[in-house]
C-alpha cells in the first residue's frame, strides 16, 4: 500500500520533424525532470530511508501556478520545471488525473484534490474553475479562526482518501487566523502482485560494508522483467500488479556502495528502460516505512522563494487579498508484503517448485537500493524512494 498526502497552506528546436507531444506527454516529461531534481534535494535533507511523491507535489503546485503572476509565476515554472502554457499544462494534468483513478478489488489508484478557502474569502472564478474542471478539486470553506476544527476537517478528509493510513497531516498550530486558503492533494495506491512471492526468509541486509542487520526477505522465482545496466552498474527488476497498468521497479547497484552514482541521476534511472522477460530469482526486503517532509526549505533550495514572502503575487487566486505560502507538508507511506503493496490474504499459486526452476537472472537486494512505482499508460512515476536501512 502506498499513500501520499500533500498540502499547501497559504496566508494574508527549429526544423524538427518529431511528432508533436501531447499535453499529457509534456507534463509527464516535465514531471520526470522535476522528480529528479527533487530527489537530489530530498536525500540531502532526509537521511536514511525515503518515500515520497513528486507527482503529488506537482499536481497541487501546478494548480497554484495557474493563479500566480509575474516573478512569482516564473520562479514556480522554472523551479518546478512545469510546462509553461497554463492551458496546455492544466489540460495535461486533467488527462493524467483521469488515469489516476482506478478502484477495483485488486488495484486502487486514487488521486484527490481539495481547496479550503476561509469563510468569506474571495477566490477568482477563473482559478476556481481551473481547480474544479482541470484538477477535479472539491471546494469547502473553513473557519480558520477555529484552527483545531479546521485542521480536524482537513485531516479527516485526508484519512478518508488514504484508507486511514495518513493521519494528522496538518498540525493545528500551522493554521493561523490570517490563513485564507489551503490546497490539499492525496495520492493513494494499493495493489496485489501479479505473481505473489513464494515465501519469506530471514537474512542479513548490508547497510554498509561493515554494518549488517537481520530483516525479512520476500523470496520467489518466477517470470519477471529485468535488465542489467552497464552505465549505472546496476540491476533493474520490474514487477507488475494485478488488474492494471502499474508496476514497481527496484534498482540495485552492483556495488554495495554504488547508490550515489544512481542518485546523482535519478531522472535517468527512473526513465522507461527496455527490459527482458524471464525467470528471475528474487529476494527483496519486506518493509514498511513512512516519510514526513517539510517542503518549504527544499523548494527554497530549488530556487522557489517568492511564494513564501509578502511579495508573492498570487493575484490570480484572489485579487482581493495578498497571499503567500506558509507551509507545505507531505506524508507518504509504503508497505511492501508477500502479496503486494497491501496486507491481504495470500492466494494459492500452482506452479513448478522454485527449486526446480533455473533462473535466467538473479536479483538479490541485500544492500541499499532505489525503487519507483509507475503508471505505464502515461509513464508517470507515482511514488519513489530508497531503502538503505
TrEMBL record:
GO terms for molecular function: serine-type endopeptidase inhibitor activity. The keyword Cytoplasm does not apply. The keyword Transport does not apply. Residues 1-18 form the signal peptide. One of its GO terms (cellular component) is extracellular space. InterPro entries: Serpin_dom, Serpin_fam, Serpin_sf, Serpin_sf_1, Serpin_sf_2. It holds the Pfam family Serpin. It comes from the Eukaryota. Gene3D superfamilies: Alpha-1-antitrypsin, domain 1, Antithrombin, subunit I, domain 2. Keywords: Protease inhibitor, Serine protease inhibitor, Signal. Residues 36-389 form the Serpin domain. Belongs to the serpin family. PANTHER family: GH10112P-RELATED, SERINE PROTEASE INHIBITOR, SERPIN. This is Serpin domain-containing protein. The lineage of its organism: Eukaryota, Metazoa, Ecdysozoa, Arthropoda, Hexapoda.
